[in-house]
Amino acid sequence: MSLKETVHFKWYKHLLILLFLFACFQGSAWITAAEFSQVFQNSSQMTAFLSRFIHPDFSYLPKLVEPMIKTLQMSLLGTVIGLVFAIPISFLATTVVTENRWLSTIFRFLLGLVRTIPTLLLAALFVAIFGIGEATGVLTIAVFTFGMVSQLMFQAIETIDFGPIEAAAAVGANKMQIAVWSIAPQVLSQFASYAFYAFEVNVRASTVLGYVGAGGIGVILNSSLALLNYERVSIIILTILITVALVDKLSEQVRRSLL
């Protein structure tokens, strides 16, 4: 095939891909009965919302300090609880420690099951079971952290150097001693990095848990939206954005120093 024919072939190939994607888009819009024109027909409501949203109610800011602190406390406590359970389970989920493929497979299946449940759905289930409050938010964050960090941790364990493990086994060390003295030192910095990353993710997640009654600043955001108080919604979102940005920056600096 000549160079000219090759160029034409690639051009037709790209055109067919674009046509296929457009057909998928049109088919999805037809199946879901989505009418995008309705979005622009309600322009008056959009204008009314934005005209109030761009004027944050700064006088309401002092009342957001305590809910924001509660949100951070929920995130921290839930992260710590999740890590306490994630560390031992991450060791049991890898054959490097257990040397038992069936046992590790069972734990990996359970971790996969936990990770498939969305955070908001998990929070809604816990609210139905335990009731409304910050404790429900902490429990939701703990379970989410457990599933996420356990996965990262056992994958880190499987990439370690096996030399120290073989040396410890040669002198008669048991599995617990091998895990503590041969494996843990190699992954400790990664574990700490994952812990701060989990806290960073949980701060963002905890701000919306209030929508289902799990406490924190999300409760105020939900009620302000329900009352159409868009000036307060604006200052709440601005507070959340600044707090999340600060936590992300701090977490990034700590994780860089650990790796």
List keywords for this structure.
2 domains, MetI-like fold, 259 residues, 0% strand, single chain, mainly alpha, 12 helices
Describe the protein's architecture and organization.
By secondary structure, the chain is an all-alpha fold. It is 80% helix and 0% strand. The chain contains twelve helices and no strands. Helix 6 crosses helix 8 (134-157), helix 7 (119-130) crosses helix 8 and helix 8 packs across helix 10. The model has no long low-confidence stretch (mean pLDDT 79).
CATH architecture of the largest domain: Orthogonal Bundle
Q: Please identify the structural class as seen in this structure.
A: mainly alpha
Helicity, as a percent range: over 70%
Oligomeric state: single chain
What is the CA–CA distance across the termini?
50 Å
Query: What is the 3D form?
Result: globular
Average pLDDT value?
Answer: 79
CATH class of the largest domain: Mainly Alpha
SSE string? HHHHHHHHHHHH
> What ranges have pLDDT less than 50 throughout 5 or more consecutive residues?
none
CATH homologous superfamily of the largest domain?
MetI-like
> Per DSSP, what share of the residues sits in E-state strands of 2 or more residues?
under 5%
Say how many strands there are. 0
